[in-house]
Design a protein that fits this description.
Blueprint: H1 3-103, E1 107-114, E2 117-124
Antiparallel strand pairs: 1-2
Organism: Muntiacus muntjak
InterPro entries: IQ_motif_EF-hand-BS, IQCF
Protein name: IQ motif containing F6
Length: about 130
């Protein structure tokens, strides 16, 4: 083997070695990029989940506030109806009491007819 053949063989070996090294470097770079991409996707998924939970918490809070407000309004309406009914009952009672006080003092009585005489029992109430 002469020098030229040795140089050609050495050049082939060196180019093969450099090709292997470049391919290995590219493979390592691709693997690192893949790891970074996986990490980034997981971070994006976590951030999306956090945003979703925050939106859900906000929605739940707003819904709860609406439910509380509706309950307060219903309670206010029920209390208003109760107070109106109580006021109406008080007016009816006061009128009834006035009427009862006006009719007191009338003569109340009962009578029976026995044989030939009339038995009369009269009661005058003034209260």
């Amino acid at each position: 083997m002469d020098t030229q053949n040795l140089e050609k063989a050495a050049i082939k070996i060196q180019s093969w070695w450099r090709g292997n090294m470049v391919r290995r470097t590219l493979l390592h770079a691709a693997l690192r990029a893949w790891v970074i991409q996986c990490w980034w996707r997981s971070m994006q998924a976590k951030m999306l989940e956090q945003r979703r939970r925050l939106a859900l918490r906000l929605y739940t809070c707003q819904e709860w506030a609406v439910v509380k407000m509706q309950a307060q309004v219903r309670m206010w309406q029920a209390r208003r109806r109760f107070l109106q009914a109580r006021q109406a009952a008080c007016i009816i009672q006061s009128h009834w009491r006035w009427h009862a006080s006006q009719t007191r003092g009338l003569i109340r009585g009962r009578y029976e007819v026995r044989a030939s005489r009339l038995e009369l029992d009269i009661e005058i109430l003034m209260t």
